[in-house]
Amino acid sequence: MTAGSAMDGHAKAQQLQGLQHYLCGSVAAFTNIVLTFPLHKAQFRQQLFGIRVCEAVRQLRGDGLKVLYRGLLPPLLQKSCTAALMFGLYEDLSRMLPRTFPVQARSDSADLMLCSLAAVLAGSAEAILTPFERVQTLLQDSRHHGHFRNTPHAFRVLLQEHGPRELYRGLVPILLRNGPSNALFFGLRDPIKHHLPQAKSNVGHLINDFICGGVLGAGLGIIFYPLNVVKSQAQAQVGGEFRSSWSILVMIVREREGKVIRLFRGVHLNYHRSILSWGIINATYELLLKVL
């Protein structure tokens, strides 16, 4: 082997290492969406209509198996890309940001703030993919089944009839959700894992990663659930005025007879789905990191 080919091989290895967090995050999210999409769809109906889980399931059964996976492509694309950005950008930024500060000037609290900033920036960058979440909402809402045939058709109609801005309805609650939830996820992931029983096998590590991701996903899902309700309501609208997140929240509370607790309709299903979803994502992500 020549020196040149050895250097090329080393460069390619470094390039792959730099991309592995993006790749692992993307594959982990892809796996999760395929497995849990029906649960997400039932939860979405609860968020949108304020109904109980049995009624949401009844609606899905009434729609039929043919449309059960209607709207799968947008979250498949969106979640795969956002998870790639979430894990990949966080790793890149958490390495880059500390380099801007002298080691002597940093403390543990400063390092924690820099990692939190990296997580918030990564979460905010994910919001560029809001159009996928927007189209997913429309395809899952039975009121729009006659208006949008599939993902490409929905994008085409929204762009032709309403313009690019229409694709970004619900952007504010997404930004308010993504940044803080990312900071909490990455900030609490290692401490939670350290409090779990020490794993002595690959299966044990996989179980611990699943539990860690599931606990965090479920907890953060509850904390930020009202923002998801506001986001769903905003994105279910086609055309017309762009209302503020606060005005949408007030409208929802009024429609639900002023009972704030009803903002959390669907939170039980979301809790169980999040345990499964983020357990799968975190465990798959860590497993792939070890393999690559």
In short:
The chain is mostly helical and 292 residues long. It is built from eleven helices and no strands.
Describe the secondary-structure layout.
Elements: H1 3-49, H2 53-63, H3 73-96, H4 108-126, H5 130-140, H6 151-162, H7 171-194, H8 202-223, H9 225-235, H10 245-255, H11 267-291
Description of the molecule:
The protein has 292 residues and is mainly alpha-helical. The protein contains 11 helices and no strands. It has helices at 3-49, 53-63, 73-96, 108-126, 130-140, 151-162, 171-194, 202-223, 225-235, 245-255, 267-291.
Return the average pLDDT rounded to an integer: 86
Q: Give the number of DSSP strands.
A: 0
> Number of helical runs?
11
Give the CA-CA distance, first to last residue.
24 Å
Question: Largest sheet at a glance?
Answer: none
Low-confidence stretches: none
